[in-house]
Amino acid sequence: MKILVFSDWFYPGSQAGGPIQSLISLMKTSSDTFYVITRNTDLNSTIPYSNVQSDCWQQSFQENIQVYYLKEGALNENFILSIHNEINPDRVYLNSMWSPKFSLLPLKVFRAIGFSNNVFLAPRGMLKPAAFKQKGFKKKLFLLFSKFTKIYSNITWHATSEIEKEEILQKFPKANIRIAPNISNATISPQAKEMTSPFRILTVGRISPEKGYYEALEAIRTWNPKIEIYWDIVGLKENADLVNAIQLSSKESHRIHVQMHGHKNQDELKTFYEKAHLFFLPSRGENYGHAIAEALSNGIPVVISDQTPWKNLEAEFAGKSSSLNPKDLAASLDFFLNLSNETYRKWSDGALIYAQKQINTQSIFRNNKNLFNKLL
């Protein structure tokens, strides 16, 4: 089966984070042939990739993946029609909901030619309540417009969890939805971690409000650890006010040493996971959380918000999912700091066992392989 994909960013880009990882993982497990239309630059960059050619097809990291890296301004209705005629795809996959060029424009074109019943759309968490706290008025206005124009009628929605399915149905009650959970790139560690000194907390996620950094900072301010703590923050410095707030917090505490490391690729991240004792990400909403999966797979207990798909963590000795109340978050951090090495190993083992149960199961692979199967 031939799948024509539209995605704002793709490999070798990495700064867009989860949506790229999710798309790549979907492709890696499939026997279908994918034709990807994407930009020739990474997120927040105007510099074209140095190792790809623009405005032509080329094979990507896998034989069944062909990519067309577009220069700025090259994507228009005529181009989409010409690519459709050239490829003659069986399905179209849109890796975003709000993107004007890589979601709405292709959808408009395929509706006009009567092909929308073969279009799949992955909202990638963009219908979560937390997502509407950023540019919420515009998004709500667009949803009203979309219902009036029926732009999303006849398409198939790709939800990655039952939670996301419900979020889609809340906005589009008659939506046709298929569930195929995210696949992680994480490799499960063969052994648990030890409680060593100094105690290191790791946060991986772009520095923006929706990742819960304001709540994390308030928790850190209310926490009074008995020993020195090192908090490593790895992520794109997206919000200047937050960056300043983090820098200020590093000066306020004598026992909590905060360091921002900027964006890192997957290979560079390995060292941070190896050193960390606790993963901390109180995000306001996660569609999946590839960094959470990575932490659990490395045997790192997690302290995350209760707004993610990762459930029953405490019962499985894998971590704690907390409300966004700073005192609750601080209490969870303090709990892990005060564990003996023997008890900490129990939680590290729990994280590994939880990862084995929840990540990349046979049913997850099966659902992804069958995602584009015959439509009713």
Protein model, in words:
With 376 residues, the protein is α/β, with parallel strands linked by helices. The chain folds into two domains: 190 residues, 3-Layer(aba) Sandwich (Rossmann fold), CATH 3.40.50; 160 residues, 3-Layer(aba) Sandwich (Rossmann fold), CATH 3.40.50. The protein is built from twelve helices and 14 strands. It has an eight-stranded mixed β-sheet. A six-stranded parallel β-sheet has the order 11-10-9-12-13-14, with helices on both faces. Helix 9 links the parallel strand 12 and strand 13. Helix 6 runs parallel beside helix 7, helix 6 crosses helix 10 and helix 9 packs across helix 11. The protein is globular and about 65 Å long. The relative contact order is 0.12. The model has no long low-confidence stretch (mean pLDDT 93).
The second-level CATH architecture of the largest domain is: 3-Layer(aba) Sandwich
Q: How many structural domains does the protein architecture include?
A: 2
Unreliable residue stretches: none
Q: Kindly report how far apart the N and C termini lie.
A: 16 Å
Q: How many β strands by DSSP?
A: 14
Radius of gyration: 21 Å
